[in-house]
Design a protein that fits this description.
67% of the residues lie in helices and 0% in strands. The protein is mainly α. The chain has 2 domains: 20-153, no CATH class; 172-248, no CATH class. It is globular, with a radius of gyration of 21 Å.
Length: 249
């Protein structure tokens, strides 16, 4: 079903070119880190930044195709059986924390790096990386976590919730393809939850045309909020133009 805004562009973004040599190199690095982790329980805490970076490249460049996986999630399941959530945290650390503090994260540890990532994601361009890194280095883990919670709760931060779904393996390729397509259209810096929200809002806009107008209003409002600022202003300008025409008529 085609939604009101129709996520299908006139020109579908091309899939990344597959580089077999690079894929073997990156997958080899991931396997080496995970192999060392089995021998040393703390190894991921030592090399988690490097692991997150490599996982991001596997997803972006589709290196998982080297081993004939149907999706990135299927690849994660092979390397992180029962713990894909942790793999996504590793990737978020790489994506959200600035490069200048990454060399210091090894001493900070995995759990504090996750808290740093939460602050960075919330503060955006205002993230005081040096200040927060110093706090992470000086405070015990639980005290640092409390400091982060106080910082986040002092702002109007939308609460989040983790929702689990069980999918059949035959469903994963379609879901993964839809998320990847939305990611290419919306920007690779957008989270997968953001992409899923856009897909759902687009579906509701189309599915609600002849049904509940309140649901249509909700979905369209959500879509407008997700637009970049220039497009949002352009949309509002068009709405005002339509309103003036209605008044004139």
């Amino acid at each position: 079903m085609i939604g009101l805004t129709n996520l299908r562009p006139s020109e579908i973004p091309a899939a990344p070119l597959f580089n077999e040599k690079r894929a073997r190199c990156v997958l080899g690095k991931i396997d080496a880190i995970l192999a060392q982790e089995k021998a040393m329980d703390q190894q991921r805490d030592v090399r988690f930044v490097e692991l997150g970076e490599n996982l991001c490249e596997v997803r972006a460049c589709q290196h998982w195709r080297l081993e004939k996986f149907e999706s990135f999630d299927a690849f994660l399941e092979s390397r992180f059986p029962g713990s894909r959530r942790k793999a996504y945290y590793l990737m978020a650390i790489h994506e959200h924390l600035p490069a200048k503090i990454k060399p210091s994260l090894k001493a900070v540890g995995w759990s504090k790096a996750v808290e740093l990532m939460r602050v960075a994601r919330s503060d955006g361009g205002k993230f005081a990386s040096a200040t927060w890194l110093h706090k992470a280095q000086q405070l015990p883990k639980e005290q640092f976590k409390e400091e982060v919670e106080r910082h986040l709760s002092g702002k109007e931060v939308e609460p989040s919730e983790i929702i689990y779904f069980k999918f059949y393996k035959s469903q994963l390729p379609v879901i993964e393809q839809a998320l990847e397509m939305a990611s290419r259209m919306l920007g690779s810096d957008k989270s997968r939850s953001y992409c899923l929200e856009m897909i759902c809002a687009d579906f509701l806009a189309g599915a609600s045309l002849d049904r509940d107008p309140n649901t249509l209003l909700l979905s369209v409002s959500k879509l407008v909020q997700l637009l970049p600022e220039p497009q949002k202003l352009e949309f509002l300008h068009e709405i005002e133009s339509w309103r003036q025409k209605e008044i004139a008529a």
